[in-house]
């Protein structure tokens, strides 16, 4: 499996070298997560079904945090080296100090998408899904992650979304309190 993972990762990274595309994907990688967080937060005051929307926004935030927390647990057991350290890719951005698997960028962005999709907001969920794919692929393109790292991050996010969906129910006392803020 590693050979296939390295081959796909190397192929995606080999597409780099076009200064315009490189710059665009560096920008997507750097700004993708903060912009998606802003896009989620900005919805707090919009929409006709404000309570339902706010529940989903809180669920997205919880999914984001739980997904990243799960990643930290995984890192206790798996210290995968980065593809640029293994000679698979050429790095286009600064080196990272943490292990490669799973990708926090992928987890963060797919967590938002998964939360919207699992809570039945398909149009918004699809927007966030496209953004998550772009951010995740940018990480492979830039040489900082294997393709399996971003797939692992996506799976962590999906698991976290399912966990939040099962545990954080609408119209509970906690939900009524949180959705009534501001």
Automatic annotation (TrEMBL):
<keyword id="KW-0812">Transmembrane</keyword>
<feature type="transmembrane region" description="Helical">
    <location>
        <begin position="101"/>
        <end position="118"/>
    </location>
</feature>
<feature type="transmembrane region" description="Helical">
    <location>
        <begin position="56"/>
        <end position="77"/>
    </location>
</feature>
<dbReference type="Pfam" id="PF01569">
    <property type="entry name" value="PAP2"/>
</dbReference>
<dbReference type="InterPro" id="IPR036938">
    <property type="entry name" value="PAP2/HPO_sf"/>
</dbReference>
<feature type="transmembrane region" description="Helical">
    <location>
        <begin position="125"/>
        <end position="144"/>
    </location>
</feature>
<keyword id="KW-1133">Transmembrane helix</keyword>
<feature type="transmembrane region" description="Helical">
    <location>
        <begin position="150"/>
        <end position="168"/>
    </location>
</feature>
<feature type="domain" description="Phosphatidic acid phosphatase type 2/haloperoxidase">
    <location>
        <begin position="56"/>
        <end position="165"/>
    </location>
</feature>
<keyword id="KW-0472">Membrane</keyword>
<feature type="transmembrane region" description="Helical">
    <location>
        <begin position="24"/>
        <end position="44"/>
    </location>
</feature>
<protein>
    <submittedName>
        <fullName>Undecaprenyl-diphosphatase</fullName>
    </submittedName>
</protein>
<dbReference type="InterPro" id="IPR000326">
    <property type="entry name" value="PAP2/HPO"/>
</dbReference>
């Amino acid at each position: 499996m590693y050979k296939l993972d390295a081959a796909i990762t190397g192929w995606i990274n080999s597409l780099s070298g076009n200064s315009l595309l490189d710059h665009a994907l560096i920008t997507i990688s750097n700004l993708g997560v903060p912009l998606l967080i802003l896009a989620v937060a900005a919805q707090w005051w919009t929409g006709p079904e404000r309570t339902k929307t706010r529940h989903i926004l809180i669920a997205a935030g919880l999914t984001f945090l739980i997904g990243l927390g799960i990643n930290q647990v995984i890192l206790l057991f798996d210290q995968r080296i980065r593809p640029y350290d293994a000679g698979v890719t050429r790095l286009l951005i600064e080196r990272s100090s943490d292990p490669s698997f799973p990708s926090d960028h992928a987890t963060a962005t797919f967590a938002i998408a998964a939360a919207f999709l699992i809570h039945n907001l398909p149009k918004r969920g699809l927007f966030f899904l496209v953004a998550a794919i772009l951010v995740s692929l940018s990480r492979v393109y830039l040489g900082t992650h294997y393709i399996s790292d971003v797939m692992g991050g996506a799976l962590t996010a999906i698991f976290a979304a399912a966990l939040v969906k099962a545990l954080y129910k609408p119209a509970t006392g906690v939900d009524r309190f949180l959705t009534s803020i501001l």
